[in-house]
């Protein structure tokens, strides 16, 4: 849909593009935050703190293309591939890679 600017389900060409998919924050419905793709643990020592806590960094965001006629939606991940590669390498993080090769440049 993004490449052709045409809905693959109904051929409609009137599409909404949501640049950063957002949602209400957990602790306040009045706060809107970008939906992150994943998170990574950040030890407190890496953020200049001396406690033994670990923090979570929100990584990446989603772009969505939505057909105005049928609602078909395509999601695109932005800024999260290195974190996803890290999760795959660590195993057991709920992310797996199906590697059939990278598509040729268009
Ligand atoms: Zn459609």
Summarize the structure.
With 106 residues, the chain is mainly beta.
| SS strand fraction | 25-35%
Number of strands: 7
Order of helices and strands: EEEEEEEH
Question: Helical stretch count?
Answer: 1
Fraction of helical residues: under 10%
**Cα-atom radius of gyration:** 18 Å
Spatial strand order of the main sheet? 1-6-7
Give the biggest beta sheet.
3 strands, antiparallel
Distance N to C terminus:
15 Å
What best-fitting shape do the alpha-carbon axes yield? flat
Tell me the structural class.
mainly beta
Bound chemical compounds:
zinc ion
Describe it for me?
The chain contains one helix and seven strands, in the order E-E-E-E-E-E-E-H. It has one domain. The strands form three sheets. A three-stranded antiparallel β-sheet has the order 1-6-7, with no helix packed on it. A two-stranded antiparallel ribbon has the order 2-3. 9% of the residues lie in helices and 33% in strands. Zinc ion binds next to loops.
Main attributes of the structure:
1 helix, 9% helix, 3-stranded antiparallel β-sheet, 7 strands, mainly beta, two-stranded antiparallel sheet, binds zinc ion, 106 residues
